Amino acid sequence: MFQTIEELVKLAEQAGSVHEVMIQAEIESSQHSREAIMQHMENNLKVMLKSVEKGVAGVTSVTGLTGGDATRMHTYIDENQFLSGKTILKAVQNAIAVNEVNAEMGLICATPTAGSAGVVAGVLAALIEEKKITLEQQIDFLFTAGAFGLIIANQASISGAAGGCQAEVGSASAMASAAIVELMGGTPEQSAQAVAITLKNMLGLICDPVAGLVEVPCVKRNALGASQAFISADMSLAGIKSVIPPDEVVEAMYQVGQQMPSIFKETAEGGLATTKTGQEILHRIYQQD
Q1: Distances in Å between the alpha carbon of 32 and those of 151, 198, 226, 262?
Q2: Domain range for residue 282?
Q3: Which residues are CB-contacts of 143 (< 8 A; sequence separation ≥ 6)?
Q4: The pLDDT of residue 1
Q5: How far apart are CA 129 and CA 190, in angstroms?
Q6: What is the distance between the alpha carbons of residues 148 and 174, in angstroms, rounded to a whole number?
Q7: Which of 101, 189, 208, 252 has a C-alpha 20 to 30 A away from that of 53?
Q8: What is the CATH number of the domain that holds 126?
């Protein structure tokens, strides 16, 4: 089993891909057949795509605090007056959709967490639509994302309560960027560089959920995380490298998370949660004096 990104890259260069290394690692650790593992990942994929579809169609959260933005983005894209690229905006739309479904208490696939579930699913759904990738490629995409996510989880954190939102949306965005690179024909090393570029640009991102709910600003952070994944992937595919090696970037994220005050780690005691409007929302939802 690989422990670092450096080890993963070396193994992937020998095996031919990151996703193959991850599949073999899963076979070894779970003792399940390749067919069973692939089927399980396909089931996860189905949940992801259904949550995208449901969210784009339009949902409203239990609190009424979020909902409908995925539909608004869908309409905006259809009007064809957008400034960003269509694939990126589709990913943004989809990421919002998944997290609106999460806030509506619908079924999503935590990737790597529920609060950051929109990023990988949103990016992949956009690629399916815009790049017409095969089912096999879709499943491989998820294994590649999972390989890098596993390392980040073991060497740093994927928990907002432990490391802030850099550990949730930051990790999800890094996972998605690495998978995009491999899907588009990049090398394992380029996937690793995409991870480093992404995490560097999300270092210090706090987790400050308004009223303690995974809605504001979580939904929109997933949207921006999806867009970051594409930019990082394009930079890496262009041959741009991180001056700080990927494993050192992951270590830096861990250290930042350790040093981050608790008010910025899912406690709703700082940041947007303590703004005037944030407090008004808190009192309205929980009817506090």
Answers
A1: 21, 33, 32, 40
A2: 5-286
A3: 18, 19, 22, 23, 26, 41
A4: 85
A5: 24
A6: 8
A7: 208
A8: 1.10.4100
Report how far residue 6's alpha carbon sits from residue 188's, in angstroms, rounded to the nearest whole number: 10
Average model confidence (pLDDT) across the chain: 97
Q: Which residue has the tokens 């089927």?
A: 39
What does the chain look like in DSSP terms, one character per residue? Answer: ---SHHHHHHHHHHHSSHHHHHHHHHHHHH---HHHHHHHHHHHHHHHHHHHHHHHH--B-SSSSSBSHHHHHHHHHHTT--SS-HHHHHHHHHHHHHHHHHHTT-----SS-STTHHHHHHHHHHHHHHH---HHHHHHHHHHHHHHHHHHHHHS---HHHH-HIIIIIHHHHHHHHHHHHHTT--HHHHHHHHHHHHHTTTT--B--GGG-SSTTHHHHHHHHHHHHHHHHHHHHTT---SS-HHHHHHHHHHHHHHS-GGGBSSSSSGGGGSHHHHHHHHHHHT--
Measured CA to CA, the distance from residue 34 to residue 23 in angstroms comes to 7
Structure-block tokens of residue 278: 């944030």
Run means of pLDDT, 10 residues per run, the chain, 289 residues:
96 98 97 98 98 98 97 97 96 98 98 98 98 97 98 98 98 98 98 99 98 98 98 98 98 98 98 98 86
Q: How far apart are CA 204 and CA 259, in angstroms?
A: 10
